[in-house]
Design a protein that fits this description.
about 230 residues, 9 helices, alpha/beta, binds cytidine-5'-diphosphate, 5-stranded parallel beta sheet, about 50% helix
């Protein structure tokens, strides 16, 4: 059966990764969390003192890029690849509110984007990939057979992310999460290089009032249509 490329873009905490993992498992495709790659570089910048609340030395980060290796290693227990920074698993470390607070600034740097986009394109070269992010349908895979654009109200998104962080034991407030979500939306949609925008041929899904199962069923229906058309030709 021929394989397709599925690009899922959208605002922060719209549940892209949840549904992308489910789809990849269902189809036996590879799931790639492109946001994890931007988060890994951000974690590197924090650890090296390149970015902090007081200062962001963009030039230093660009100079360090050749020393930063971001990769995925498949975890058979989880069923998807975990992100590694210079050979070390950072899957948990990149999910903090501190990293979220800086990541959109790091992701706005063109040199960071071109480094990661090149890796992302390579990961999808054989198709059979579900990738989520902000520029997947517009820049990374402009020819993807299925493009989805996920939206939900800022409050819904913040409460989902707040629950996720509280469940893993982080000490944070709902207001801090809401502030981060709206700040990232602003930076991601206003940056010069590859801003977050819905591709002209993307299907918009507002999941504010959808359960995870309803959303999955809806998307699997869309995939069936695309695969059906492909087999007709
Ligand atoms: O928190 P959430 O899961 O919504 O975001 P993420 O997918 O982990 O992405 C974190 C940040 O990385 C985003 O807010 C963007 O600034 C950046 N990003 C990007 O610029 N391009 C991508 N393809 C993916 C993420």
């Amino acid at each position: 059966m021929s394989k397709i490329t599925i690009a899922i873009d959208g605002f922060s905490s719209t549940g892209k990764s949840t549904v992308a993992k489910q789809i990849a498992k269902h189809l036996g495709y590879v799931y790639v969390d492109s946001g994890a790659m931007y988060r890994a570089i951000t974690l590197y910048a924090i650890r090296e003192g390149i970015i902090s609340k007081a200062n962001f030395d963009e030039k230093a980060l660009v100079a360090h890029l050749t020393k930063i290796d971001v990769s995925f290693t498949f975890n058979s227990h989880l069923g998807y690849g975990e992100v590694y920074l210079n050979g070390i698993n950072v899957e948990q470390d990149i999910r903090t509110l501190e990293v979220s607070g800086f990541v959109s600034k790091v992701a706005a740097i063109s040199q960071v984007r071109s480094k990661l986009v090149a890796i992302q394109k390579q990961l999808g070269i054989h198709k059979g990939v579900v990738m989520d992010g902000r520029d997947i349908g517009t820049v990374v895979f402009p020819k993807a057979e299925l493009k989805l654009f996920m939206i939900a109200s800022a409050e819904k998104r913040a409460s989902r992310r707040f629950k996720e962080l509280i469940d893993r034991g982080d000490k944070i407030t709902y207001d801090a999460v809401l502030k981060n979500v709206t700040e990232r939306d602003y930076i991601d949609t206003h940056r010069e290089d590859s801003p977050l925008v819905k591709a002209a041929d993307a299907i918009e899904i507002d999941n504010s009032e959808m359960s995870i199962q309803e959303q999955l069923d809806h998307i699997l229906g869309l995939i069936d249509v695309v695969l059906g058309k492909l087999h007709e030709t």
